[in-house]
Each structure stands twice: as structure tokens, then as C-alpha cells.
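Weekly structure sync, notes
Attendees: PL (lead), two postdocs, one rotation student
Agenda item 3: pending single-chain targets
PL asked that the sequence for the first pending target be pasted directly into the notes so everyone works from the same version. It is reproduced below exactly as submitted, 311 residues in total.
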Amino acid sequence: MSTWDPSDVPDQHGRRIVVTGAGSGLGLVVARELAGRGAHVVMAARDVAKAGRHRDALRAEHPAAAVDVRPLDLLDLQSVRAFAAEVATEPIDALLNVAGIAGAPLRHDAHGRESHFATNHLGHFALTALLLDALGRGREPRVVTVSSGLYRVGRWDPDRDDHLTGGARYNPMRAYARSKLANMLFGLELDRRLRGAGSPIHSLLAHPGIARTPMNTAPREMPVERLVASLVGRVARTPEQGALPILYAATAPGLEGGTFVGPRTEFRGPVRVEHLPIRRPADDRRLAERLWAESEELTGVRPALLSPRAS
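Predicted structure, written out during the meeting:
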């Protein structure tokens, strides 16, 4: 596939798009580009004041832009439910699950679940499930979940509780990779269930490569982690480049559900958005089904629309 840039984004007038993590990094770039193409963008962010400043700057650049800011903390399921209740009153044409954390020290949510798994996967699982009805009323609706090439080294054993506790020897990058595998398993299982239910919603996956975002370059506690963050800052792509696969998955015409897109190479240089193969262990359907069942149990959100045996 040839290089693809924001000028290739089709006109988005008439589309209402929810973007998580829109207060900074990739989510902010995606929100800005979509609003510039005419979409009504709902910016979901933990830091509402910061996101509000970005919204004001965006409106100054695009006076006709329709942009709302809403509070969302994916680590807090009450916040997820409140956000969903507020935005689901109108049809949603696309939900872009962009928010995420990486390399964080061991931390748990209010229910004792490790923060990478809780934020990157459980929060987005619950949010997506709660917004399915509004998405079903949208125009050519899509869910795009952002993963990472690191999913291939992610390990999730449903018979252990490392993904909840952090494990006996917590490693933040191992926890991140596990959460990105969960994103892949979820996005693919969601697509299978949507197709089995005859839903018009398509579930797609995207990975940005390594981008120079606050998530990747934030200060780290351990010396080796500081070294890695420094190296990332030198070889990573810009946030604008990292956002391209997400924009492609969200807007390119004719994409099928279950599609996984990302750059040909991880590091800086021209971005060639490719349709990528699904590698192990993300292709394990039984593992995906077990993750889905556990996610329903942990979040208390069970979308009645989606049969567990949808093909």
C-alpha cells in the first residue's frame, strides 16, 4: 500500500466520533484531524481542563468545528458508565479506543486489578459494550481499538491471576504487552460476535508503530527504563505519523471488520499503512472467548446483543 496521509481522510461531515485519550498524544492528533475534516468529535479525557484548552485551540484553527470534551477515566468503571450514559443519547458513527498507559509502576484500580490491564483493556471493553446500541444507530459504524506490535510477546494465562495482581515479579513492559494482546483478542472476538449477530458495526484494530508520545517518553523510575525511553525519543515517529494507521482504520472506505492495520516498520520514516496479518497468540479463538467471559465478569457489563457462539 502507498503512503497515506491526513489529506486522504474522506470528508467527515455528518459523522459523530468518540475518541478516548484525546487530551494528549495520538488521541489528540486523531481528534484534531477528524474535526478538521468536519466530524463532530467527542474528546474523552481524564484531564478535562487540559483537553478543554486543546479544544479551544482546535476551534480557533477550525471555527466551524464541532468538538465536545467529556471526562473519562478508564481505570474507574463508574467513570466509564457515566461517560457512556452521557454520550449514548445520540448515534455514534465511530468509537476510537486510543487511550492507554505504558511502563507504569505497579498500581491497581479500586477492585485490585493491575492498571495496564484495567485501563488498556477492561475500561475499553466496558465502554465499547455500553456504546454498542448507539453505534448500531450510526452510519457505517466502526470500533477501532489501538494495539501494538508488542502483542506478539504478550502472554495471558487465564488460569493465573498475573494480569490482575501484576505477578510475583512485576515488569511494566510485560504488563503492557499483555494488555496489548488483550486488545487484539478483544477486537477480533468483538468482530466475530458482531458478524454473528448481524450487526452493521465493524471492529478493526490499529497499531501506530513507535511514536513520540507522552506515554512512551514519560520519566521512568528504573535506569533501564529511562534508557529505553531516551532511545524511543530518538528513533520514534512523530505523533502525527503514529496517528495515521488509526485515521486510516477509522475512515478509509470499504474496510472489513477484523482488519488490522499499521506501519510496515516500527520506527521513524515514511509511513506505509499496511493490512497486517494476525500473529500468534492473537489468533487463538479459545483464548479470546475466555478473555471475553472474564471481562464480562470483571466489569459487570454483558452486551445482550452478542451471542457467545457467534461465528
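Discussion points:
- The first helix runs from residue 25 to 36.
- Strands lie at 16-20, 40-45, 66-71, 94-97, 142-146, 202-206, 260-263, 273-275.
Action: rotation student to compare against the earlier draft before next sync.
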